[in-house]
Amino acid sequence: MKTVENAAGRMVPDEINGKEAVPFKGVGKHRPTGRKYAPLIPSCIDYPEDNNKVISSLREALVLCGLKDGMTISTHHHLRDGDLVSNQIFAIASELGIKDLVWLPSASFPCNDPVIQYLEDGTVNRIEGSMNGPLGMFVSEGKMKGTAVLRSHGGRVQAIQDGEVKIDIAVLAAPAADSFGNAKGTGGPSATGVIGYAKPDYLYAEKVIVVTDNLVDLPCWPMEIEGNYVDCVVVVDKIGIPEKIVSGTTQITKSPDRLLIAELTASFLEKSGLLRNGATMQAGAGGTSLAIAVFVHQMLKKKGWKFRFGFGGSTKYMVDMLEEGQMGAILDAQAFDLDSVKSIEKNLNHIPYPVFNAYNYHSKGNLTTMMDIMILGATEIDTNFNGNVVTHSDGLLLHGIGGWQNCLHARNVIIPVPLFRDRIPVIVDRVTTLCGPGELIDVIITERGIAINPRRQDLLDSVRGKGLPLVTIEELRETAEKICGKPEKAAFDDRVVAAIKWVDGTVIDAVRKVKK
Amino acid sequence: MKQAITGNAGPKVRSDIEVTLELTEAGGIELNLRSKVKTMYGKAIEEQCRTLLAYFGIENARVTVNDSGALPFVIAARIEAAVKALTGTSKSFIPEMISENTYHSVRDRYRFSRLYLPGNNPGMFLNAGLHSPDGVILDLEDSVAPDRKDEARILVRNALRAVDFYGAERMVRINQGQRGLDDLDVVIPHNVHLVLIPKCEDADTVRTIDKRIREIKQREGQTETVFLMPIIESALGVENSRDIATASESVVALAIGLEDYTADLGVQRTKEGKESLYARNRLVVAAKAAGIQPIDSVFSDVGDMEGLLENVLSSKALGFEGMGCIHPRQIAVIRQGFSPSPEEMDKAKKIVIAWRDAQAKGLGVVALGTKMIDPPVVARAEKTITLAVRLGMLPENWMEEETVKN
User: Fold this and answer.
1) CATH class for domain A256-490?
2) Domain B3-87 bears CATH identifier 3.30.429
3) Can you tell me the ipTM of this complex?
4) Exposed, middle or buried by CB within 10 Å (0-12, 13-18, 19+), for B28?
5) In chain B, which residues have their Cβ closer than 8 Å to the Cβ of A259?
6) Cα–Cα distance for residue pair B164/B62, rounded to 1 Å
7) The pTM is what?
8) Residue A247: predicted pLDDT
9) B93 to chain A nearest CA, in Å?
10) Is CATH 3.40.1080.10 what the domain over A51-245 is classified as, yes or no?
11) Residue A88: alpha-carbon gap to chain centroid
12) Which of A83, A295, B170, B276 could crosslink A79 through cysteines, CB 3.0-4.6 Å?
């Protein structure tokens, strides 16, 4: 393996886990050719005539699906920190003496920390997905055998669809399923609202296991997973812990400083004219984003305006807009809280809409390019507006990419962040890890000023002279450094511990092992 | 062995540092650093600690610092306080005064909202000014635990030099009695605009403090007036409020503290405030008679913004011109409450224009609708207009614009 400089000026490996890797070429420069990947052809005669695919245990199902060394196992993250299924897969594999599995989750959570022991005992070679907290630390310290691959939600679909990743067995938890394998996210004790993240998995995996704690009569309707793609159905006592399925971040921030940033953001949206009748918006589930949604909702009400639609990650605050008439529809990839889960069941214009369609580079069109207002976060932004969401300034890998990279393709990307967290500047001279190129990031809103990307002269013109604290990104960096002092850079070894993929499958940056 | 611990640490502590200092006989400085920003600032923190200890002449010591992202002015204050606690040194390490902190205040500036900042809690200092309070109060009195008073004083001094309060009036609430006078020695040389005098009961207290401030100013060659805001928090204070208001030229406002006042009376403090109505009326009259601003007590339920607004409006109706805040989110509500409402502005504009037209025609009295307008009505309307202009709610040339419109 050698490293090469990619189009963003980052040194990246040309080979990852023994497979050739294409360095990032620039935004919109890479066009894979050929045909989409497809799993082997099954025949219905190989399945029971009564179509009852219920298998007594996950262990039996995994064995039946031919679990063996080196396979790639995929899961979705709709159960979030209440996921009781994923860890079991690797516990079973470990008991069976299986080695070198690749885990392809659509995201991981603190509840998945026990997987560390299966990374240590060799059951799992690597994770290709998000790594948070202790898992991220484990990777950053160079303890994982394989190289981690971090992809955006859309990038995961892209990799599955163009054959970069081949799923051997998809193990898909389902809040409701029938004996044929039709499944959905509503109903039952572990309702998640939608299970759209499972879509590429069930369509492209060689074998599909649906795991449910709520076996319903056929047909499980409206199904999000179609039984025709499913090999086995496993019924367990519990797939999730309900109170932990709800995302922990769906509370409006109480921090006065973050509320100030949220107010400033809402004011920017109003004064720039980005907020208008018929606009589209996506804001995510962080405390600051939720506060922005609330402020924006008040503005819409006052003006008698309505968003055409919003894209979820849905939250109570989006549902309020929908139900009070300030949002035409919610297209929803995941429900972040219980109000959203309930809304999907009762509101016809709250529509499950998987990232499979919305974010995928190989889709015929990208939903995010239709979004007028996109509110995102970041751990670091540099003076070229480049963004980092996976590492902190100390070099440790601590977050996944989520849909962040995909959302950068919206018309107006706005990132409200504090200028520094404790003593750590958020606006820096060069991001520790490059996750998104600055040409896609338009506005940085901090408590100490708003910096607009000079590429967006139109936005600059729209807010000039309207009383907003406009500054340059360089001024923001200087202010942060003046208050906090000049930070030292993290020191790294040469070893690449994680590759950061761009939405098209190319390698935009690499994370290296931190020096102790 | 004697040991000094200063500052704060713990899972919820941010932007602070805990310093544990033990003086030793030999072996140089043994520094043990724990910091959540170690990768970025570990070396800088260590260097700062060593430089400061050398400055104070400490050659042998065991130092443990537990850092939660403290800025340099906090680290300096914590080290100094620890050294002072062990050696009693009279030496101080004064951080650089940033250029943003050299602005002055004026006697008659508005004081609608003034945000209390507990003096030993540096995490709240940094962004306080960004919330646009009229004033920030670095509090050395009730919000600081008795055994932390010394270190808070040093921290507040450093904050006055190193923290940008973004144009807010820079206030310090000193302690009562001798400790309060000693507080003045430490803080006054660092561009304090206003001193709050807690539990003030007589004019002598004001005069003593004023005298001490003048002495310090003379010593330091300072010329700007340091304004005073006595806080009336007892029955005796209320009875003496007129004397207190006129005790010194420097007094620009009288504030009332209702928690202590109701305690002194032995009654419950209620939201309606019937129990304090007399005191509040008396204080407003005393202040207005002396030509200074009457300032109301804080509203302690930080979650109840509607209750706060109601409180502000009733306070304004009594004649108060400002209120304390204990949470940044209260600032905008208080400002809104004390600002003229659109209706008030409209009415005031009509009165002033009608009066101007009457004057032009040589009329002494004029009617607006069915109401007679005479000089006091005009004076009140003019006050409203001045306030609106100064708050940026009306342009300076509003009258021309109105005339054009009509």
Assistant:
1) alpha beta
2) no
3) 0.91
4) exposed
5) 329
6) 33
7) 0.94
8) 63
9) 19
10) yes
11) 23
12) A83
